[in-house]
């Protein structure tokens, strides 16, 4: 077991290194001069070279690469070209904002999906409930997340005016940590959160339904039934055993969610990491774009690692080697 | 006469790949959801092919009113069945041309993804050993690339064009397919008839073409169908984020223009057609994919 964890850890480090390297060369090989945006404001050659030096953009590609890796090891992402601040300072509040819609959205989506999925999986095969459930889940799963966002925005914000559809809070409200505990914040949170829930529910529903269908014909279910307990309790037995794939799916899903809600953040102008990534790329603010991308990749690797380890804890049939 | 009459010979001969493909496609017609999906898909293909002939105007042509002013945001009328955009373009013409981009990106990317993941999966799963180790470590790295962020960065750096979007989608989605196909190959490889054929002196190529591939055709089809859906979704998302090919019109781009010009609420005739078409297309693909899923997982079959 310990050998397995060590091997998986080493593997994760290797993967992160590989992704970082690919990304580094992608950003450097592309012909783009980050000082170009500043030149327009009248920058002398001297000042330009000083800036390049400061940003670690001088010397051979190899030197730059070594310097970059060295800085990463000590957690230094450099400074943003645009904000003229360390990247960490720019990204930290944005990460928290993203987590605010990603984590509750994913959990609520999973819980709702699991509940409905159990009902659909337990329904009579080929019956009305099963067919409607599968059909609706598959169709909703096919709705692109920006279409979900646009629909929510038009109906509940522009037309009905129930929720604000822009940003995280009205100007002049609390700033800093206190803002997360205001009604105004929750009011702004509602629509993007609902969008994430709708986006993630169908996949959970279908996963849970497959699990329940697979389990309901197992012998142990017959045994539970023979004990004479109610239908609901029998279904619960099948549901509990179907949660395993769902739980392991949740970890990588969280990482992918954070990456995938970029579009939802854009629709609702929610100041998160994903939106900043899109903005940084279009503004050619590469240190920010690179760091945002790196953090997302690390999250996915860690999530996969956690999923593998948790799976073994939950399912005694899994043997590590 | 070398008539292969013994049962051994029949077992070694295996199945024809084309026959297995035809059989898999026919299986779809037994699933009513998949039939609905196929019908929608067929309709979309017909519209995509005939788009230049049935579209009333050029997609980027600015429409003028009789008084010579730009015909902005006109609601549906007999001249413009789906109204006009804030730039005075005919929505119906843009919408019809959008079918072409969606299906082009979807199909080309899916074929590329299908080929690469099948080759990767089969080589890795069938030969095993070092080859498998190296190929699987490569997929490990590929799998930890965050999908949408990578496509945003890559398309922005390479330049937004249909070719680059297809390239990026292919780079992204072969990895999951390779994993799925590899595990399907692993189970097939251990089957008795494969060992039998091998013992009887069949070549690796023969075993792969006539024993392994025909039996995993459904898994490959499932992955190709899902890839079309992912490709369409990725292209639409990129275009919606403003990273679409500016020279061709796509549904994501229509929605991007409507969104960024602040006309979501008023210009429903501009927003609803592309949204609905995207939902219909992707859902139909998922409905077809679901039918394969039920077929490939024997535990899901009705008992």
TrEMBL record, chain A:
Any Pfam family matching the protein: BPD_transp_1
SUPFAM superfamilies xref list: MetI-like
Membrane topology of this protein: Multi-pass membrane protein
Annotated Gene Ontology cellular component terms: plasma membrane
Subcellular location: Cell membrane
The organism's place on the tree of life at top rank: Bacteria
A single BP term in Gene Ontology: transmembrane transport
TM region positions: 12-30, 99-122, 134-157, 177-200, 246-268, 288-311
Domain ABC transmembrane type-1 positions: 95-307
Assigned keywords, A-Z: Cell membrane, Membrane, Transmembrane, Transmembrane helix, Transport
Key word Transferase present: no
UniProt cross-references to Gene3D superfamilies, sorted A to Z: MetI-like
UniProt entry tagged with the keyword Lipid metabolism: no
InterPro entries reported in the protein's UniProt record: BPD_transp_1_N, MetI-like, MetI-like_sf
Similarity-based family: Belongs to the binding-protein-dependent transport system permease family.
Name of the featured protein: Peptide/nickel transport system permease protein
Lineage summary: Bacteria, Pseudomonadati, Pseudomonadota, Alphaproteobacteria, Hyphomicrobiales
TrEMBL record, chain B:
Secreted keyword on record: no
Predominant localisation class: membrane
Keywords assigned by UniProt, alphabetized: Cell membrane, Membrane, Peptide transport, Protein transport, Transmembrane, Transmembrane helix, Transport
GO cellular component: plasma membrane
Domain (ABC transmembrane type-1) ranges: 103-289
Subcellular localization: Cell membrane
Any GO BP annotation: transmembrane transport
UniProt entry tagged with the keyword Membrane: yes
InterPro entries, per the entry: BP-dependent_transpt_permease, MetI-like, MetI-like_sf, OppC_N
Transmembrane segments: 33-55, 101-128, 148-174, 219-241, 267-289
Membrane disposition: Multi-pass membrane protein
UniProt similarity note: Belongs to the binding-protein-dependent transport system permease family.
Protein name: Peptide/nickel transport system permease protein
């Amino acid at each position: 077991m310990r050998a397995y964890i060590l091997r998986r850890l080493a593997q994760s480090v290797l993967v992160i290194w590989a992704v970082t390297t690919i990304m580094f060369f992608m950003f450097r090989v592309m012909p783009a001069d980050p000082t170009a945006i500043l030149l327009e404001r009248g920058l002398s050659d001297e000042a330009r070279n000083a800036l390049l030096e400061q940003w670690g953009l001088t010397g051979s590609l190899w030197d730059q690469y070594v310097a970059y890796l060295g800085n990463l090891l000590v957690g230094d992402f450099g400074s943003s070209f645009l904000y003229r601040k360390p990247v960490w300072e720019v990204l930290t509040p944005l990460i928290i904002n993203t987590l605010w819609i990603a984590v509750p959205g994913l959990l609520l989506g999973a819980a709702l999906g699991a509940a409905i999925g159990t009902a659909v999986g337990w329904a009579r095969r080929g019956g009305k409930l099963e067919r409607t459930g599968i059909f609706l889940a598959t169709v909703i799963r096919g709705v692109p997340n920006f279409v979900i966002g646009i629909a929510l925005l038009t109906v509940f914000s522009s037309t009905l005016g129930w929720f604000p559809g822009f940003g995280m809070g009205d100007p002049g409200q609390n700033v800093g940590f206190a803002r997360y505990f205001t009604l105004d914040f929750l009011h702004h949170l509602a629509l993007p959160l609902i969008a994430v829930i709708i986006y993630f529910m169908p996949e959970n529903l279908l996963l849970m339904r497959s699990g329940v269908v697979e389990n309901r014909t197992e012998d142990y279910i017959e045994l539970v039934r023979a004990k004479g307990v109610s239908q609901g309790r029998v279904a619960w037995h099948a549901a509990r055993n179907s949660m395993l794939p769902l739980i392991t799916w949740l970890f990588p899903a969280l990482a992918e969610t954070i990456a995938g809600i970029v579009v939802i953040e854009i629709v609702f102008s929610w100041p998160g990491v994903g939106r900043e990534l899109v903005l940084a790329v279009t503004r050619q603010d590469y240190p920010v774009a690179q760091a945002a991308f790196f953090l997302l990749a690390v999250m996915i690797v860690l999530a996969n690692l956690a999923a593998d380890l948790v799976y073994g804890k939950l399912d005694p049939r899994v043997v590590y080697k | 006469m070398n008539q292969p009459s013994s049962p051994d010979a029949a077992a070694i001969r295996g199945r024809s790949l084309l026959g297995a493909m035809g059989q898999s496609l026919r299986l779809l017609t037994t699933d009513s959801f998949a039939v609905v999906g196929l019908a929608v898909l067929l309709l979309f293909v017909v519209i995509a092919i005939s788009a230049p002939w049935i579209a009333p105007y050029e997609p980027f042509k600015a429409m003028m009113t009789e008084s010579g002013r730009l015909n902005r945001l006109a609601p549906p009328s007999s001249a413009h069945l789906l109204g006009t955009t804030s730039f005075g373009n005919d929505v119906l013409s843009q919408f019809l041309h959008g079918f072409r981009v969606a299906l082009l990106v979807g199909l080309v990317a899916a074929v590329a993804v299908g080929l690469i993941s099948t080759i990767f999966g089969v080589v890795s799963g069938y030969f095993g050993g070092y080859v498998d180790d190296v190929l699987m470590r490569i997929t490990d790295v590929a799998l930890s690339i965050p999908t949408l962020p990578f496509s945003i960065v890559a398309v922005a750096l390479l330049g937004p064009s249909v070719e680059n979007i297809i390239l990026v989608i292919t780079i992204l989605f072969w990895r999951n397919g390779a994993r799925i196909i590899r595990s399907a190959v692993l189970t097939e490889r251990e089957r008795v008839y494969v060992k039998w054929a091998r013992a009887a002196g069949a070549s690796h190529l023969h075993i792969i073409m006539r024993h392994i591939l025909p039996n995993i055709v459904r898994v490959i089809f499932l992955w190709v169908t899902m890839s079309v859906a992912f490709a369409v979704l990725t292209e639409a998302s990129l275009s919606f984020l403003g990273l679409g090919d500016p020279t061709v019109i796509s549904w994501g781009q229509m929605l991007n223009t409507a969104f960024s010009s602040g006309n979501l609420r008023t210009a429903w005739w501009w927003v609803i057609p592309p949204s609905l078409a995207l939902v219909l297309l992707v859902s139909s693909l998922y409905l077809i994919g679901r039918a394969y899923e039920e077929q490939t997982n024997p535990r899901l079959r009705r008992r």
